[in-house]
User: Fold these one by one.
Assistant:
Number 1:
Amino acid sequence: MKLAGLKSIEDAHDESVWAVTWVPATESRPSLLLTGSLDETVRLWQPDELVNRGKMTGHCLGVASVAAHPSGRIAASASLDSFVRVFDVDTNNTVASLEAPPSEVWQLRFNPQGTMLAVAGGGSASVKVWDTATWDIVATLSIPRPEGTKPTDKSSSKKFVLSVAWSPDGRRIACGSMDGTVSVFDADRAKFLHHLEGHFMPVRSLVFSPVEPRLLFTGSDDTHVHMYDAEGKTLVGAMSGHAGWVLSVDVSSDGAAVATGSSDRTVRLWDISMRGAVQTMSNHTDQVWGVAFRPGGMPGRLASVSDDKSISLYDYS
Amino acid sequence: MACVYIPVQNSEEEVMVVLDQLPKEATDIIDILKAEQASLDLWLIIAREYFKQGKLDQFRQILEEGSGAEIDEYYSDVRYERIAILNALGAYYTYLGKIETKQREKEEHFILATQFYNKASRIDIHEASTWVGKGQLLLAKGEVDQAFSAFKIVLDGDRDNVPALLGQACVEFNRGHYSDSLELYKRALQIHPDCPAAVGLGIGLCCYKMGQFDKARQVFERVLQANYPYCAMASNYLENHFFYTGQHFLVEQLTETALAVTNHGPTKSHSYYNLARSYHSKGDYDKAGVYYMASVKEISKPHEFVSPYYGLGQVQLKMGYLRSSLSNFEKVLEVYPDNSDTLKVLGHIYVQLGQTEKALEFMRKATKVDPNDSQAFLDLGELLISSDAGAALDCLKTAHNLLKKEGQEVPIEVLNNLGVLHFERGEFELAQQTFRDALGDGIWLAFIDGKENPPSIDANATISQYKDMGIFHHLEKEGHLVELPWDKVTALFNLARLLEQLHITETASILYRLILFKYPDYVDAYLRLAALAKARNNFQLSIELVNDALKVNNKCPNALLMLGDLELKNDDWVKAKETLRAASEATEGKDSYATLSLGNWNYFAAIRNEKRNPKLEATHLEKSKELYTKVLSQHSANLYAANGAGVVFAEKGHFDVSKDIFTQVQEAASGNIFVQMPDVWINLAHVYFAQGNFALAVKMYQNCLRKFFNNTDSQILLYLARTHYEAEQWQDCKKSLLRAIHLAPSNYTLRFDAGVVMQKFSASTLQKPKKSVDEVRSTVSELENAVRLFRQLSAASSLHIHGFDEKKIDTHVEYCSHLLDAARVHFKAAEHEEQKIKHKQEVARQLALAEEARRKAEEQRKFQLERRMQEDELKRVRQQEEQFERIKEQWKSSTPGSKRRERSEMDDEEGGHGEKRRRKGGKRRKKDKHSRSRYETEGAEAEMMDDQEEPEYEDANMNYREPMGQMNEQDEEENVQDPLAAAGLEDSDAEEEAALSTARRRRAFSESDDDEQPEHQPESSPVRENSAELQSDGEGREGGGDKLDGDAALDDED
C-alpha cells in the first residue's frame, strides 16, 4: 500500500484547518471535500484539483468538526461556540441550528443510514443523538461513572467526551474521552455497554473498520493507535511511531490500512496486518488535525488538513 | 674462556672471538663472518651464544642473515648447516609464538616458524631434525594429531630417534595417554641412558598423572640427583621446554636446581625469571613478584635483560601497586621505546591513576607505533568516550575495521559502545544497525521486525499492559526457544532505548519485557517500562512497575526518585517528600537528582498554597535555593540546578540575574539530544514578559511551543495569550485562547479567559472616540459570543464541571449584556451617524456633481466662446493672410518654420520634467526596499537569538555521564530532566491544580487593567513574584468591579 501526493493548497483557509470530511457524490456533482477552520468558515473543494467550490460563514469561534450526510446533500459543522449548524451543501442554506446547553459540541458523525446525527457532548459526559428528520434530540447516551472511582478523582470532567464513531451497521456508538476511556453504546436501545481501557490521555478520534464491524481504531495524545475488539472488550494491538499526539484516525474502505494525522506534523499510513507504519508523509508544517479516506470506490483518495492552513490530497493504492 | 676462531680468508691467520665479549652490534660480527666466508657452523655457534646471553635481537639478526638468499647461493652445497640455521630460526619463532598472548601476533610467529621449517624441508625433505622441529611447532599450535604424524615420519625412518620419541611422548601426554607416554619416555631412556634429565622428569610426570605418586617422587628425586652435575644453563633451557609445554612444576624444580649451582649473575637472573614466570602463569602473584624482584636484583642495567621488569610490572599492576608497576614499565619503555604492549599498559596505569591526559598520550602513541593494533584503538577509543565522543567513535570504528580485516569476531561490548556513540550523535540508523550487529541472531529479531506481536489482552485489564509476558509464554508453547544470553542484555537494552527515541515504543516495551522475562532482577528495564507507562499517563501501572523494581532493590535511588515523581503527579505531597528523602539518603546526599527533586518539592510547596503564608513561602523558597545551590556547588554545570536557581532569583524579582542564568542554560541545553529543557525557554519568556518585552516573550513562547511541544501545550498558549493581552493585541490573544481550547477542551478556564478577552476587546473598542460601523458591528458579535460563553459556563457550573464561582460568572454575564446593550446603542448611533454621514456625503456628492456639471457647462460655454473667437480670429487671420498672400504675391517671399521650432523646444522641456519625476520616484522605491531589508535582518537576528543551538558551554554538559557502553545511566539523566521540568514545574498536577490556580488567574484576568498577570500556576511561572505584588494591588477590589466603574464612565460618555 502506498500514498502519493496529488495536490496541496497552501492557505486554503485564513487560519488553522481543524476538520475535514468527504461529502458523497450526488446525481448532479462528484464527491467533494469539506473543511472547517479556526477562521470561522467551512469550505468545499472539488478533487483532484481541489478547486474551491464555496466558502460558508455563519460559525463563530472556529469550526472544530464537520460531518456529511450519506446522501451528500446536507452536512453539519460544530464550532467552539457550541452550536451545530446543519446546512445544505449546494446552497449553504441553514437546515437546522442545534444546541443542547450546557453541553458543548465536539466531534459529530451521521450514522451510515443517515437517520441520526451523533454529537460528542464534551463536559456533559454524554453523546447527544439527533433525529435527522425532525432535528430533535432522540437520545442522550451518558457515560456512567466507572466503578470503584477513587475519591481523589475530582470530577466528571475526566469523562469529557471528545470524539464519536458509528459502527458500519449503525448498531454501536463508541465515544472517546479526555481521560482516554472509550465507551461503547448500544445505539438502538440507547444503552451503555462497556468501557475499553488502554489509553490514559485524550482520545480525539476513533473509527470503526468498514470491513470488520467489531474492529475499532482509536488515536490518542499518548502517541499510540489502538485496535480494539469493541464487542469482545479486548485490546487487539497497539501501534506506536508518532512523535506527538495522534489527532485523527481513519480507515481505508478496504479495511487494510489506517491513516493518522499527528501533532508531529506527519501523516502516517499503517498496515494493519503488520501493525506498523509503512509510510510517513511530511508535507505539512504544523499539526495535522484531520485525515479522511474517500469512502468507497476507486481510485482511493486520502485528504489531510493542518494547522498550517493547508489541505493536501493523496492517491491511495 | 670460551672462544671461537674465524679463519681469515687466503691466509693462515684467524680472528679470535671471545664468546663472553661478543660485540653489541650483531652487524659487526656479521661483517667479519661474511668477509671471511666463515663456515656456517660458526654462525650458528655465535648466534647461540647471543641467545644464551639473552640478546635475542642479535641472535635473530645473525640467523636471518645466515639464512638469506646470498648465503643460500654461496653455501648452496652446505646443506646440514643451512638446515640447522633454518631449524634454529623455526624453533625460535615457535618459542615466540608460544609465549605470545595475542592471537594475531601469535599466529604471525607460527607462520614464520612454518616458513623456516618448510624452507629447511626444501633443502632436504628427509632431515629428521626438521621433522622434529615441525612436530614441536605443531605441538605448540595445539595441533596434536598433526604433531603426531610429524614425529611418526621420523620414527618410521629411525625408530630410535630420541628427540622424536620425546616429542611423541609429549603428544601422548597431551592426549592424556599417560601410559603410552610413559612407554615412549622409557624407550628413549633405554636407547640413550645419558639423555637429559628431562626424560626422567617426563617419566615422573606420567607417573604423577597416573596417580602413582610414590613412584613419581622417587623418579624426581633421582632426576634431581642426576641433574646435579649438569650445568645450570642447561637446566634453564630445559625449563624453557617444560615451561612452554605447561609443565610448571618441573620448571620450578629445575630452576631451584639451577640456582643452587651457579653464582653467575645473568644466569641467576634468568633462573629467577623462569621461576617467576612459572608462578606468574599459575596466578601465584606473590611468589612471582618475589622471584621477578630477585631476578631484577641480579641485573645491573635493564638493557641487559628487560623481561623481568616487564613481568614485575605486570604482577604489581595485578596486585594494585600502580606506582611501582609504572616505574617498572617505564624501564621497559626505556629499552623498547616503541613497544606497543608497554605503551598500552602504561596508558592503562595512567587511567587508573586518574591522569587521563597522560594516558591518552601513551594510547595515542601505541596506535601510532602500530596502526594495525586493534586493541590499541579499542583502548584509546574507550578512554576517549568520556572526553571526545567524536574521536572515540573514530577510534572504535578503526578498531572495528581492523578486527574485521583480521577475520576476528568484534566483541559485543565494542559494537555496543559504537552504537551508543552513534546514538548520542543522533545517527539513529547507524546506531540501530550497530546494535543489531552486536545482538546477532535471536528471538528479538522477531519482535524488532514486527513478525511477532503480543496477543490480545482484556481491555479492562490494560493496567497490566507493560507487565504482560503472554507473548513469551505463547512463543515457548509453540516450541520456540526464548533465549537471551547475558552478554547481549546491555545491547538489547540500548536498542530498546533507541527504539524509544524513534517513538517505536511498543517494540521497545516488548524488548524490555524480554529482558525481564529472562532476568527479572534487571531494575533498569522496570524503570524504562515505568517511564513508558508514565509518558502515557498510566500512573497506576507506572507505580506498579517502580514497585517491582523496588522489590529487587528497595534502596535503588532511581526507582525511589521515580516513585517520588509519580507521587507528586498524583498530588501525594507528603508521601512524595518522604520518598525523595529516602532516595537522597540512599545516595548519601550525593545524587544531584535527589537533591534537585527536594529543591523542586520545596519550590512547589512555596507557591502551591493559594492563601499564601508569606513566612512559609519564604522558608520554602530559601530551602529550595539552598538545595539548588548545593547541587551547583557539587556540579557547577548542572543545568537543572542552574535553572532552579534562576527561578528562585526570578521569584525574588532579580530578573536580570535570572535572565543571564536562563540564557546560559538554554544555550548549554541545546547541544545535547538527551537534554530537553523547554522550561528554561518558558522561564526566559516569563522574564521577558515581566520586564515588559512582550514581542520577545511572544517569540520565545512560540519557539518553545514549536520546538518542544509540537504546538500542543495549552498552558504555553495561555502564557502567550496573557502576553498578547498585556500588549493589547486582542485578536491575537483570542486566537491563542481558541487554539488552547481546541487543544484542551475540558479546561473551562480557557473559555472564561476567552470571554474576558472578548469583553475587553469590546470595551476598548467602544471607548474609542472614533469607531466605524464595522468595528462596532464586530464588537456586537464579540459581545454576543462572550455572553454565550459566560452563560454556558454559568449553566455548566451547576454540573460542577469546573470550579468557578457562579456569582462571578453571572457578574460577567451581566456586565457583557450591559455592554452589549450599550454597544447596540452605539451600533445604532454609529449606524445613524453613518447614515447621516452617508447622507451628507451624498448631498456633497450631488453638490459636487452639480458643481461639476456647472463647471463643465461653463467650460463648454467658454470653449464655445473661445472657439467662436478663434474662428473669428481665424477668419480674421485668414482674411489677413489672404490679404498678406496677396501682398506676398506681391513681395514674393515667406518664413513659416520658426514658430514650429519653438514648440518642439517646449516639448523637450516637458519630457525632461517627466524623466526627473520618474527618477525621483525610482529613488523613493529604492529607499523603501532598503528599509524593508533592514527590517528583515532585524527579524533574522531575532530569530537567531531564539534559535541558538550551538552548545557553546560545553563544560556545562556536566550532567553527561560516561556511557561506557551502558546507557542505563541515561535513565537517570532522563530522570534529571523531569526535575528540570519540575523546576519549571510543568506537569500534570498543573491540570489537577487548575482549579486552584484558575481562581488566581481568573482574578487576574478579570481585574484586567494594566497590571494584571493572568496566570501563575506553579508549573512554569517563576515570575510569580511580580504577580503577587499585582494581586495585592487588586485584592481590595471586587473582581470585575473596576470594570463596571469603567463602564459607568462609558455611560457618562454616552
Number 2:
Amino acid sequence: MKDKKIVLFPGFRHVVPADFESWLEKMASAGWHIDRITQWSSFVMVFRRGAPKKYRFVYDLQAAPRKDYRAIYQEFGWEYLGRMASVFIWRKEYRDARLEAFSDQESILQRNRRTLIAVSIAFYMFLLAALILGLSFFTRTLAPGELFQAVLALALFLAVAAYLGRVMLKIGRKREY
Amino acid sequence: MNWEKLRRRYIPMSETMFYILFSLQEERHGYAIMQHVKELTGGRIILGAGTVYSTIGKLERDGLIKAVSEENRRKTYLITEAGNRILREEAARIAELYQHAEVLL
C-alpha cells in the first residue's frame, strides 16, 4: 500500500476557498495528511498516509496581514501549515461540531471578497495584456516568425483570462460559503 | 473619519461587532474577547479567529479601538472615546428596538 499520494494542481482544481477547505478535510478523514504548505502547493501537494482525522482547514487570503495575525489564530488553537502566495492555510482537529474560523456571514463574505479581488486583478492583467498584444497587430507589421509568437502569446493570455473569469464566477456563486 | 461617516458605517452594527466593541471596554486580546463573548451569551456566540482578526482590524482602522500593549506579537486592545460613543448610540438604538418588541412578547 502506498504511503504517499501526489495531487497535481490542487489549487486550480478547488478554486473556491470553501471547496478547497472541504477537499483537504475529506483527504484527512480518509487518512491523507499534509503537514506543510508552500508556495508551490497550488501546483503540487504530497500527502502522507496516517490515521484518519477530523481536521477543519481554513483558507484565508491576507495580502498584508497585521503583526498579530498569526498570534490570533494560534491562540485559538489553529495550526499554521504555511502559505501559497498570500493564501494562509490553517488546520485544527475537532471532535463533534465542525469548527469555524469565520463565525458570521459578514466575515465569510469578506474572506471570499478578498479572494475574488485577487483573482480579478490577475484576470484584468491578462485581459489587458491580450488587448495590448491584439492592438499591436494593427499598429505594426510583424515578420512571419514574430506573428506566430504573438498569436501564440495572445491565445495563451486569452486562455488564462477565460480560466480566471470562470474562477471569478465560481467564487461569486459560492460567496456565502 | 468624521463622526457622521462613522455613524453611517457602524449604526446599526452586527451582533459580532457589538459584542467585540462591548468586550473592549476592558483591555483584552483576541482570544480573551472570544471567551468573554462566549460567557456573556451563554455559549450562543463563539467567535472564530478569522472573524475576531478582521473585525479588530476594521475597528482599529476606524479609530474605535486601539492597541494598548503588545507581547510576543499578541496585542491587547481597548475601546477609544469614539468607540464608546458609537457603542452607546447603538445601545440606545437596541433599547428602543427592545421597547417596541416587548409588546409582542
